[in-house]
Amino acid sequence: MNQNKIIIITAPSGAGKTTIVHYLLQKYPHQLSFSVSATTRPPRENEQNGKDYYFLNKEIFQQKIQQNQFVEWEMVYEGKYYGTLQAELERIWKTGKIPVLDIDVKGALHIQRRYPESSYSVFIQPPSVKELKNRLESRGTETLESLEARINKASYELSFKDHFNYTIVNNNLEDACREAEKIITAIVRG
Prior knowledge:
single chain, 7 helices, 190 residues, five-stranded parallel β-sheet, four-stranded mixed β-sheet, alpha/beta
């Protein structure tokens, strides 16, 4: 098994994981690299293919599943697939950096099982489900149905927080970033 390190940042949608990931990538530009996930969902405004996600159509995504090109994949929401390509991890390891995965809870659990000796996982916990709902509503990107689906999923995902190496409660974003930085410093140096 490849002993290259993997850092997993996971959380329910809206808990702040992507903001924390961007903070860590800025703090450690020579040690860390963002692992670009693949998805079948359409790009949001300002998202770029190959930078934010690899935007694939459903047929190509399913073909890559059949060819075992993913280290993890999920149908996160009905008809919307997300996954981490093996080639993406290899690309980052070849540069001598540690891939940072910003992925959902199920995907994070899969990566931990696949790489038990070399993965380090950080669960970002929202202060409450109510606060999470407020954050998602303030984004303005959700329909009533998608908001409800995300809240139900978040409640379920919170039940897995004890399956990860570290948990950070994101009451205050600056504090959560500093806490994540301490954890990542130990992993990078370790």
